[in-house]
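Ticket #279: bound-state structure for adenosine monophosphate.
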Amino acid sequence: MTDVIRTVAELRTLVRAWRAAGEIVGVVPTMGALHDGHLSLARRGKVECHRVITTIFVNPKQFTNPEDLKKYPRTEEADVALLNSVGVDAVFIPSPEEVYPDGYMTTVSVGGVSEPLEGRMRPGHFDGVATVVTKLFGMTEAHRGYFGQKDWQQLQVVLRLVRDLNLPVTVVGCETIRETDGLAMSSRNVRLTDQGRAVAHVLYTAITAAADDIRAGQSDRMAIREAAEKVRAAGFERVEYIELRDAETLMPSDDVRRPRRMLAAAWLDGVRLIDNIPV
Ligand code: AMP
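RESOLUTION: The complex was predicted; output attached.
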């Protein structure tokens, strides 16, 4: 049975016992409302570690829009049942006060890679992410941390953070899990209307076509413009960005010898969807 833990003290006792027995511990940080994307990280953790902890914490510090925080789906009971079904050893579900007690004063801020794209559209978001991820690594004392490529820029921020602060954890980036039509699984997808859900996959299919066109020799700019037009024509209210970037630094890149990534964010039904693919 998956152990449900709510305090750092209980978590420490559990993890210290595992570590004392020589066991490798993996952590999968999430905000809950779990779907198969999250579970794929937990399954990977189970393959590579003796013990896996999933954390569920809707981190107020990484929300730049109070409405989004309020509307964020919370499905704790179902989440615990799903984690149990994939053999997760413990789920850590702290309260906001447990994570940020009275007098809390520290922010972890990663430069460079957290500035463009999501960082520009959601100022402060990656400070919230970097701070809570640093804390979760400290709280869980995990050897390995599992993150999805779905949030590509976040993954790069966490990799940079771990390198820069010499954190004793190995970060593992896992493939994006998609619905059968190509839509990246996301906790926010449940907020789409039926009509929205029917066209949401266009964000993925449009950037996939653009990446194919670029590989076939079309100009980056032209391929991206066509992708944005397709997304708008499908009924998305707004395309925030579709950009081709260096996969690691997230800076603009036309250097085809380095790995590049196409990243997109767009609004549909008042829901902000993001996706990304290798180019
Ligand atoms: P979240 O609960 O949205 O903060 O996501 C928790 C973790 O799950 C992050 O590392 C995400 O990148 C990852 N994740 C979310 N959706 C997917 C997906 N569709 N495929 C793979 N990983 C995902």
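RESOLUTION NOTES: The longest helix spans residues 125-140.
TICKET STATUS: resolved
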